[in-house]
Design brief:
about 290 residues; alpha/beta; Rossmann fold; Threonyl-tRNA Synthetase, Chain A, domain 2; 2 domains; nine-stranded mixed sheet; four-stranded antiparallel sheet; 13 strands; globular
Protein backbone atom coordinates (compact mmCIF):
# COMPACT_ATOMS: atom_id res chain seq x y z
CA UNK A 1 0.00 0.00 0.00
CA UNK A 2 1.37 3.41 -0.96
CA UNK A 3 1.68 5.79 1.92
CA UNK A 4 0.60 9.34 1.20
CA UNK A 5 3.58 11.70 0.98
CA UNK A 6 4.61 14.02 3.75
CA UNK A 7 4.09 17.39 2.10
CA UNK A 8 5.58 20.80 2.99
CA UNK A 9 4.59 23.99 1.18
CA UNK A 10 7.00 26.93 1.08
CA UNK A 11 5.47 30.13 -0.23
CA UNK A 12 6.43 33.68 -0.98
CA UNK A 13 3.87 36.26 0.15
CA UNK A 14 3.78 39.55 -1.80
CA UNK A 15 2.42 38.94 -5.28
CA UNK A 16 2.14 35.21 -4.61
CA UNK A 17 -0.18 34.28 -1.73
CA UNK A 18 -0.98 37.98 -1.34
CA UNK A 19 -2.24 40.05 -4.26
CA UNK A 20 0.21 42.67 -5.54
CA UNK A 21 -2.19 45.61 -5.45
CA UNK A 22 -4.14 45.14 -2.22
CA UNK A 23 -2.28 42.39 -0.29
CA UNK A 24 -5.55 40.43 -0.03
CA UNK A 25 -5.58 36.62 0.21
CA UNK A 26 -9.31 35.91 0.28
CA UNK A 27 -9.17 34.11 -3.08
CA UNK A 28 -6.86 31.55 -1.43
CA UNK A 29 -9.23 30.66 1.40
CA UNK A 30 -10.19 27.27 -0.07
CA UNK A 31 -6.60 26.07 -0.25
CA UNK A 32 -5.73 27.56 3.14
CA UNK A 33 -8.66 25.72 4.70
CA UNK A 34 -7.55 22.40 3.18
CA UNK A 35 -3.98 22.96 4.39
CA UNK A 36 -5.11 23.71 7.94
CA UNK A 37 -7.60 20.82 8.09
CA UNK A 38 -5.00 18.26 7.06
CA UNK A 39 -2.04 19.58 9.04
CA UNK A 40 0.16 20.34 6.04
CA UNK A 41 3.01 22.69 7.03
CA UNK A 42 2.73 26.03 5.23
CA UNK A 43 6.00 27.88 5.62
CA UNK A 44 5.95 31.56 4.67
CA UNK A 45 9.24 32.29 2.90
CA UNK A 46 9.36 36.01 2.42
CA UNK A 47 11.24 39.30 2.44
CA UNK A 48 8.82 40.51 5.11
CA UNK A 49 9.90 41.02 8.71
CA UNK A 50 9.14 38.74 11.64
CA UNK A 51 6.40 41.05 13.01
CA UNK A 52 4.76 41.21 9.58
CA UNK A 53 4.75 37.42 9.29
CA UNK A 54 3.38 37.02 12.81
CA UNK A 55 0.45 39.30 11.97
CA UNK A 56 -0.33 37.39 8.77
CA UNK A 57 -0.02 34.00 10.44
CA UNK A 58 -2.48 35.08 13.12
CA UNK A 59 -4.92 36.40 10.52
CA UNK A 60 -4.77 33.15 8.50
CA UNK A 61 -4.60 30.84 11.53
CA UNK A 62 -1.24 29.39 10.46
CA UNK A 63 1.02 28.11 13.23
CA UNK A 64 3.96 26.70 11.35
CA UNK A 65 7.62 27.74 11.08
CA UNK A 66 8.47 30.66 8.81
CA UNK A 67 11.43 32.16 6.96
CA UNK A 68 11.74 35.94 7.00
CA UNK A 69 13.83 38.67 5.35
CA UNK A 70 14.87 36.67 2.27
CA UNK A 71 16.22 33.64 4.10
CA UNK A 72 17.94 35.43 6.97
CA UNK A 73 16.38 33.26 9.66
CA UNK A 74 14.13 30.24 10.12
CA UNK A 75 11.74 30.58 13.06
CA UNK A 76 10.31 27.37 14.55
CA UNK A 77 7.69 27.91 17.26
CA UNK A 78 9.08 26.54 20.51
CA UNK A 79 7.87 22.96 20.97
CA UNK A 80 6.70 22.67 17.35
CA UNK A 81 5.71 19.01 16.82
CA UNK A 82 8.24 18.16 19.56
CA UNK A 83 11.02 18.60 17.01
CA UNK A 84 14.66 18.45 17.99
CA UNK A 85 16.45 21.37 16.29
CA UNK A 86 20.22 21.23 16.82
CA UNK A 87 22.10 24.54 16.80
CA UNK A 88 18.91 26.57 17.14
CA UNK A 89 18.95 29.58 19.45
CA UNK A 90 15.99 30.18 21.74
CA UNK A 91 14.63 33.66 21.03
CA UNK A 92 11.40 34.52 22.80
CA UNK A 93 8.87 31.86 21.80
CA UNK A 94 10.95 30.58 18.87
CA UNK A 95 13.84 28.26 18.17
CA UNK A 96 15.78 30.21 15.55
CA UNK A 97 18.23 29.10 12.89
CA UNK A 98 19.87 32.25 11.56
CA UNK A 99 22.29 33.07 8.77
CA UNK A 100 21.53 36.76 8.64
CA UNK A 101 23.85 39.75 8.98
CA UNK A 102 22.79 42.11 11.82
CA UNK A 103 20.78 45.09 10.63
CA UNK A 104 23.35 47.54 12.03
CA UNK A 105 25.91 46.22 9.52
CA UNK A 106 23.38 46.47 6.70
CA UNK A 107 22.66 50.08 7.57
CA UNK A 108 26.37 50.90 7.77
CA UNK A 109 26.82 49.71 4.20
CA UNK A 110 23.75 51.69 3.03
CA UNK A 111 25.25 54.86 4.52
CA UNK A 112 28.51 54.26 2.65
CA UNK A 113 26.74 53.44 -0.62
CA UNK A 114 24.66 56.62 -0.44
CA UNK A 115 27.87 58.58 -0.90
CA UNK A 116 28.13 57.07 -4.40
CA UNK A 117 24.56 56.30 -5.43
CA UNK A 118 21.15 57.89 -5.06
CA UNK A 119 19.47 55.27 -2.88
CA UNK A 120 17.11 55.14 0.08
CA UNK A 121 16.47 52.28 2.47
CA UNK A 122 13.53 51.67 4.75
CA UNK A 123 15.77 52.86 7.56
CA UNK A 124 15.84 56.30 5.92
CA UNK A 125 12.05 56.51 5.67
CA UNK A 126 9.27 57.13 8.15
CA UNK A 127 6.42 54.61 8.50
CA UNK A 128 4.15 57.11 6.74
CA UNK A 129 6.55 57.31 3.77
CA UNK A 130 6.74 53.51 3.61
CA UNK A 131 2.95 53.34 3.66
CA UNK A 132 2.76 55.73 0.70
CA UNK A 133 5.32 53.72 -1.27
CA UNK A 134 3.83 50.30 -0.60
CA UNK A 135 0.13 50.92 -0.16
CA UNK A 136 0.29 49.32 3.29
CA UNK A 137 -1.80 50.68 6.15
CA UNK A 138 0.29 52.77 8.53
CA UNK A 139 0.29 50.14 11.28
CA UNK A 140 1.60 47.53 8.86
CA UNK A 141 4.18 49.93 7.48
CA UNK A 142 5.59 50.18 11.00
CA UNK A 143 5.97 46.40 11.06
CA UNK A 144 7.72 46.51 7.67
CA UNK A 145 10.24 48.95 9.11
CA UNK A 146 11.06 46.65 12.06
CA UNK A 147 13.93 44.97 10.27
CA UNK A 148 16.55 42.65 11.76
CA UNK A 149 18.64 41.34 8.85
CA UNK A 150 17.96 43.10 5.53
CA UNK A 151 17.00 46.39 3.88
CA UNK A 152 14.61 47.10 0.98
CA UNK A 153 16.21 49.74 -1.24
CA UNK A 154 14.85 52.34 -3.60
CA UNK A 155 17.45 52.85 -6.34
CA UNK A 156 16.58 56.04 -8.22
CA UNK A 157 18.73 55.35 -11.27
CA UNK A 158 18.29 51.81 -12.71
CA UNK A 159 21.67 52.14 -14.43
CA UNK A 160 23.32 52.07 -11.00
CA UNK A 161 21.95 48.65 -10.03
CA UNK A 162 24.80 46.61 -11.53
CA UNK A 163 27.51 48.75 -9.95
CA UNK A 164 25.77 48.76 -6.59
CA UNK A 165 25.35 44.99 -6.77
CA UNK A 166 29.08 44.62 -7.45
CA UNK A 167 29.93 46.95 -4.55
CA UNK A 168 27.68 44.94 -2.27
CA UNK A 169 29.22 41.66 -3.37
CA UNK A 170 32.78 42.85 -2.70
CA UNK A 171 31.72 43.79 0.82
CA UNK A 172 30.08 40.44 1.54
CA UNK A 173 26.49 41.49 0.88
CA UNK A 174 23.89 40.52 -1.70
CA UNK A 175 21.54 42.75 -3.70
CA UNK A 176 18.59 41.07 -5.38
CA UNK A 177 15.41 42.25 -7.02
CA UNK A 178 12.11 41.53 -5.27
CA UNK A 179 8.57 42.29 -6.29
CA UNK A 180 8.64 46.00 -5.39
CA UNK A 181 12.19 46.81 -4.25
CA UNK A 182 15.77 45.65 -4.39
CA UNK A 183 16.77 43.90 -1.18
CA UNK A 184 20.17 44.18 0.49
CA UNK A 185 21.15 41.30 2.75
CA UNK A 186 24.07 39.19 3.87
CA UNK A 187 25.91 37.39 1.08
CA UNK A 188 25.50 34.00 2.78
CA UNK A 189 21.73 34.05 2.85
CA UNK A 190 18.89 33.47 0.43
CA UNK A 191 15.51 31.78 0.46
CA UNK A 192 16.88 28.56 -1.01
CA UNK A 193 19.43 27.99 1.75
CA UNK A 194 16.76 28.61 4.36
CA UNK A 195 14.31 26.23 2.64
CA UNK A 196 16.93 23.47 2.58
CA UNK A 197 17.72 24.10 6.25
CA UNK A 198 14.06 23.89 7.24
CA UNK A 199 13.54 20.77 5.11
CA UNK A 200 16.52 19.13 6.82
CA UNK A 201 14.91 19.73 10.23
CA UNK A 202 11.68 18.08 9.06
CA UNK A 203 13.53 15.16 7.48
CA UNK A 204 15.58 14.57 10.63
CA UNK A 205 12.53 14.58 12.89
CA UNK A 206 10.09 12.74 10.63
CA UNK A 207 12.56 10.03 9.65
CA UNK A 208 11.69 10.38 5.96
CA UNK A 209 12.19 12.86 3.17
CA UNK A 210 9.21 15.19 2.66
CA UNK A 211 7.88 16.23 -0.72
CA UNK A 212 8.35 19.99 -1.03
CA UNK A 213 6.35 22.52 -3.05
CA UNK A 214 7.48 26.11 -3.52
CA UNK A 215 5.56 29.08 -4.91
CA UNK A 216 7.01 32.44 -5.93
CA UNK A 217 6.81 35.26 -8.44
CA UNK A 218 10.02 37.33 -8.37
CA UNK A 219 13.78 37.16 -8.81
CA UNK A 220 14.38 36.77 -5.10
CA UNK A 221 12.17 33.64 -5.16
CA UNK A 222 14.43 31.83 -7.66
CA UNK A 223 16.57 30.19 -4.91
CA UNK A 224 13.36 29.05 -3.17
CA UNK A 225 12.02 27.49 -6.37
CA UNK A 226 15.37 25.82 -7.03
CA UNK A 227 15.35 24.21 -3.56
CA UNK A 228 11.99 22.38 -3.77
CA UNK A 229 10.73 19.29 -5.56
CA UNK A 230 7.82 21.05 -7.29
CA UNK A 231 8.34 24.74 -8.15
CA UNK A 232 5.30 26.84 -9.04
CA UNK A 233 5.61 30.19 -10.80
CA UNK A 234 2.93 32.78 -10.06
CA UNK A 235 2.62 35.43 -12.82
CA UNK A 236 2.67 39.16 -12.13
CA UNK A 237 -0.59 41.03 -12.38
CA UNK A 238 0.77 43.05 -15.31
CA UNK A 239 2.16 39.97 -17.03
CA UNK A 240 5.56 38.34 -16.96
CA UNK A 241 7.38 36.89 -13.96
CA UNK A 242 10.64 35.07 -13.30
CA UNK A 243 12.59 34.82 -16.53
CA UNK A 244 13.76 31.31 -17.42
CA UNK A 245 15.68 28.79 -15.36
CA UNK A 246 12.74 26.57 -14.45
CA UNK A 247 11.66 24.64 -17.56
CA UNK A 248 9.84 21.99 -15.50
CA UNK A 249 8.05 24.41 -13.18
CA UNK A 250 4.29 24.58 -12.93
CA UNK A 251 2.86 27.92 -14.00
CA UNK A 252 -0.26 29.29 -12.37
CA UNK A 253 -2.96 30.62 -14.65
CA UNK A 254 -3.65 33.75 -12.58
CA UNK A 255 -1.61 36.18 -10.47
CA UNK A 256 -1.77 36.49 -6.70
CA UNK A 257 -4.07 34.60 -4.39
CA UNK A 258 -6.33 33.26 -7.14
CA UNK A 259 -3.48 31.60 -9.00
CA UNK A 260 -1.97 30.41 -5.71
CA UNK A 261 -5.27 28.83 -4.67
CA UNK A 262 -5.78 26.95 -7.93
CA UNK A 263 -2.18 25.71 -8.05
CA UNK A 264 -2.17 24.49 -4.46
CA UNK A 265 -5.54 22.72 -4.69
CA UNK A 266 -4.44 20.98 -7.89
CA UNK A 267 -1.18 19.81 -6.31
CA UNK A 268 -2.90 18.56 -3.16
CA UNK A 269 -4.95 16.29 -5.41
CA UNK A 270 -2.11 15.33 -7.72
CA UNK A 271 0.34 14.39 -4.95
CA UNK A 272 -2.22 12.37 -3.02
CA UNK A 273 -1.43 14.39 0.09
CA UNK A 274 -5.06 14.30 1.22
CA UNK A 275 -7.10 11.24 2.23
CA UNK A 276 -9.94 10.24 -0.12
CA UNK A 277 -12.51 12.20 1.88
CA UNK A 278 -10.24 15.26 1.81
CA UNK A 279 -9.88 14.96 -1.96
CA UNK A 280 -13.65 14.98 -2.39
CA UNK A 281 -13.88 18.12 -0.23
CA UNK A 282 -11.06 19.61 -2.27
CA UNK A 283 -12.92 18.91 -5.52
CA UNK A 284 -16.04 20.56 -4.08
CA UNK A 285 -14.00 23.67 -3.24
CA UNK A 286 -12.70 23.90 -6.80
CA UNK A 287 -16.16 23.89 -8.37
Amino acid sequence: MNRKPTLIIFTDLDGTLLNEADYAWTDANSALTAIREHGIPLIFTTSKTRPEVERLQAAMDIRDPFICENGAAVFFPEGYRRFSIPHAVLQGRYCVLSRGVPYTEIRRFVAEARACYDILGFGDLSPREIARLTGLPLAEARLAKAREFSEPLIIENPEHVAALRKMARTRGFSLIRGGRFHHLSGGGQDKGRAVRLATKVFRRNLGRTPLTIGLGNSENDAPLLDAVDIPVLIPHAGGGGIAGGFPNARRANHPGSRGWNEAVLALLDETGALPVRGRKQNADRRK
